[in-house]
Amino acid sequence: MNEEITFILDAAKESMDAAIVHLEKEFIKIRAGKANPSMLSSVKVDYYGSSTPLSQVANINTPDGRTLSVQPWEKNMLQEIEKAIMNANLGFNPMNNGDLVIINVPPLTEERRIQLAKQAKAAAEHAKVGVRNARQEANKEIRDLEDASEDLKKNAEADVQTLTDKYTKKIDTFLAAKEEEIMKV
User: Fold this and answer.
1) Does 108 have pLDDT greater than 80?
2) Is this structure's pTM higher than 0.85?
3) Phi, psi (5° rounding) for residue 144?
């Protein structure tokens, strides 16, 4: 019987870990004024008729904190990459110098910082929903156990709640750090 409860708790922990990993990926996409190659992770380029991630057709570097440089592996892809970056609607204005596509990352305005902070809060709330769904699923599975005593079920549900509290606190910590990073001028 304890094996089943351990399995349910492990499954809940795995789901909550997945919510945290997803949150970290979302936070990477939210830029805080510093150039980062992952800012272009959502850009898809039309490469010989198929939609291909930019990182698979070019080398993306950050020569300094405010600039991204994209060096295509094939020179004839320059215009295509430039067009894809503009179509991705990231707020960047790429420049083509014949060898590379250069993107100057503009400094964030106060208004844009507030928008990004709201975006970070929404991502954190989404992660919390994922954690709560994992809790709900685990509690349902615990209640559905037929040959477990009521005390065992109550203790298992308390363990699930402890896990939920731990992960919710972790999400709040990540959010506070991200908000501080966004609001720092």
Assistant:
1) no
2) no
3) -80, -10
Give the H/E segment covering residue 171: helix 150-183
Asked if 159 and 167 touch (Cβ cutoff 8 Å), the reply is no
Is 134 within 8 Å of 12 (Cβ atoms)?
A: yes
Helical (H) or strand (E) element with 70: strand 67-72
The H or E element containing residue 168 is helix 150-183
Please provide the distance, in angstroms rounded to a whole number, between the alpha carbons at the two ends of the chain. Answer: 55
**pLDDT tens-digit readout, 63-74:** 887 888 988 888
Largest CA distance in the chain: 73
Q: What is the percent of the chain where pLDDT is above 70? A: 97
Segment 21-38 shows an average pLDDT of: 80
Angle between helices 150-183 and 110-143 (to 10 degrees): 170
Q: Which amino acid is at 1?
A: M
Give the angle subtended at the CA of 125 by the CAs of 124 and 130, to the nearest 5°: 95
Q: How many CB atoms lie within 10 A of CB 8?
A: 21
Tokens 């070019």 map to which residue? Answer: 58
Whether residue 19 contacts residue 131, with contact meaning beta carbons closer than 8 Å, is answered with yes
> Which residue's structure tokens are 């972790």?
170
Cα distances (Å, whole numbers) of residue 115 to 21, 30, 45, 166? 22, 10, 27, 28
